[in-house]
Amino acid sequence: MGKKRVEWIDTVKFLCMIAVMTEHVEFVTPVWDRLVEPFFLNMFSFAAGYVYNHRDGFVQFLKKKINQLFIPWFFFSTLTIVMAHIYSFNSHEILALELGQNMLQIMYHGSEMWYVAALFIAFLPFYFFIRAYEKSNLPAGKREFVLISISFILCALSYFFSHYTRKGLFLWDNSNSPISLPWHLEYMFQAMFFMVLGYLFRVRYEQIFDRINSWKTSFLFCSCYLFVSLLLPELATFSSTVELLLYYPRCFLGCAAVISLSKQLPSNCYIRFIGGNTLVYYALHGKVESLIQAVLKHINQPEYLEIVWGYHPEAVFYALAEALFVSILLVPVVILINHWLPFAVGRKRKKNP
Question: Where are the chain's structural domains?
Fold first, then answer.
């Protein structure tokens, strides 16, 4: 029998996937970017930690992660690069060069499916941190404090390194982007920290959270998050230190709001379907969105460009509408991939009864 899915985790992944898809639409606004950036990838990491069960040796664990993450990353990253060349009639860089850059996984220099690759790498230290936690003889409470503290310090150092280290340190540095390392090592501890929070939430804190969670709690978290996200970041223009200090409160409030809402919102087959197939949606939504946007631009270029560059508030609704439309368009594609190419999503082919 397959593992029973957790409905509210599928709702979390659904909300975050729609946020990702909306983020990648051309006419998304800076305000929307500010609202979703602190939580949508962190909650994916949180969900990965939440569903993790520490019962395998490292070799067996590694084999599982290769099947669940590395093989899907390789398949879909290669597929999307080839699709981009077909869409653009080979106006991209040389195909062999892009495939080689993809294997290096350096952000902004060939990083197709980058988050899946980064999650695979983050699982490696996560395994040893959780193993140390499970074997620890420290009293309950203290060992959680130690685990959270160490993982957060590593996370903050990683964030500081990638955002505030001098540009030009590496040959591949882009002066307009944060510093990046091969295979997203600069992001490894940032993802791992939220994976740790997800794991500890399930084993230690979920019952406490459920006792206080309600629609009022969701409203409080969402209100605080909107306040911090929309008003306080203006202070960051005065100091990069203020920006760093504000980033994690925004992350924590955003994640708390998403968790609270996901536990309150009723689920349905549409939400569960997308929540259970986020890997395929993550891999393919960009190419479908690009195709739709090319058609819209061809039909009425002046109006389309006005929406893209005008930063009108209603552009958020256009972006959300396109994301939802793409999520429905991809349903038959996801079904076919699950049936005919289960290895591409880290699953085994179902045996006929």
Answer: 1-38+248-353, 57-212
